[in-house]
Structure formats: C-alpha cells, structure tokens
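**User:** Here is a favour to ask of a fellow structure person. Please take any protein you like and set down a full record of it. No explanation is needed for now; the record alone will do.

**Assistant:**
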Amino acid sequence: MTNVWSQRDPMWTQEGDLVGYDVEATDGSIGKIDASSYATGTESTDYNHVVVDTGWWIFGHKRLIPAGSITGVDHENQRVMVNLTKDQIKDAPDYMEADWNDDSRQAHETYYGQFPY
C-alpha cells in the first residue's frame, strides 16, 4: 500500500457498493457508511474512502475514513472493519461534501497519516 487512500484489497468492492454497511472501529461500532469512493486507477488523484454517518454518536457530523484504514469487509453481515479507535475517528476532521477540496483532503491525509495503516 502506498498511502492512506490505497485499498488494502481491491476485491472488497467487487461485490458492490459499501453504502449502508455498519462500520466497526477496533473498540466498537461507529455508524453506517453514507457514501463511498473507490476509483479503479492508480492515479495520485484517486482518493478512495468511505464517509460514515455517525448518527447519535457524534450527532450531526460525518467522518471520512481513507480506504487504507479498512482492514476487512464482511459482505454477508454488511460490516466494514477499520484499524482505528472510536476516539481516533471522533477526533478526525469533520467531513462536509460541499467543502471537499485539496485543503480538506490534505487535512484528512495529514490526520490519518499519523496512524499505522
């Protein structure tokens, strides 16, 4: 894997979109996938990620999680596992689709880049 945006296993998305799947941090559930972006190329502009609606947990806030943090996908139970704790996700920058640009992408890359992936 070359960066936080790279998928560990491209086969995870072969069975379809991950929208609606539950997301499990290393210490518990954090919400459901609201949107996902999985480019098939290897361009530096391919920022593969999922957007998690955290519901009541961080009310009104969504979190973008780079694909490099995904450690597994259980299609049968519609669950995605990530290698981050709930606190690490809670402390991540807020994600707002309307504000997604190079600056916000860099903020996410810097934040998630401090954790092993």
Summary: The chain has a mean pLDDT of 84. The longest helix spans residues 102-113. The first strand starts at residue 22 and ends at 25. The chain has one domain: 10-108.
